[in-house]
User: What shape does this take?
Amino acid sequence: MHSAKGPIYPEDKFRQLRLKSQQILLLTALEEHRNLRRAAAAIHTTQPAATASLQQLEARLGVALFERHPRGMVPTVFGAAMIRYARGVLHDFDHATQEIAALASGAAGLLRIGSVMGAVPTILTDALNRFHASNPMVRLTLLVETSDLLVPALIRGELDIVLGRLPDSFYGHNLRIDSLEGEPMCVIGRPGHPMVRKRRLLIADLLGCRWILHPDGSPMRRRIEQAFQAAGIVAIPDILETASILATTSLLAKTDALSVVPAHVAQHYAGYGMVAILPVSLPIDMAKLGIITRNDRTMSPALAAFTDTLMQGDVDKKLHQGEASMGALTGRTSDRKIR
Assistant: This one.
């Protein structure tokens, strides 16, 4: 028996809270429905049972979790905190179920990766190939989206790692960020675009064009706007917003619209003759990419090995760039395997 001022061990914490699985489900259902009757129906229980369950939890915590308003039940600041942790528990359990299923099928773990478009052609593709060579039995899933959608998915527990840029609103969320290299941005259009034949262009020369850009609020879009503002352009009048590279290249192919993408993406599609890179220089590079993980989660062997592979690839890239004049260097593949 420990003193009142002594350490509280995990079993003591669970004994104090005694949180039931039904209460976890009820918290998330109340957030969604904001009505006790509908929330009870959603988790297949009665309204009186749901009311008693919520009252028991509030009594144990000593705080009110919800307030009743004409528009429904609204979480208090305490309720919002408990809902956040309840969702985390459900996401973690879902991940555990998926990983166990993967292990049972003969895989060596499950790794859920999120990445921005700009990292896919080089950094991510190289890392995935290197990782798979050393860890062929790890099951991989990949989601390509903008950082403002990927980072919340990481926080919710839907992803294990994100290769992207941290939106300003997510600083302070107990995330670990290992910075990688930045890269220039390129203006692209269709092959044969009238502006491609120009010897030299200024951004101001392109102001009258239609632009296909990332959605407003994304880190990529903010960086593009900063580049235009640095060139003296306050607003771009004609914009179609999409994060889809398929939609972007399809629209560019049939119009004289222009887009801005990271240099690696531009070079990748230009190499297949799908786009042309315009001879215009943007005054600001892309913000550095980062390997983003959660500090409050222990890394699985698969995640630790993949992070090593990404970091090693960045080291090798810098070595190649720094010693190009002395001849090509052989990149090393991470030999960290899942045991």
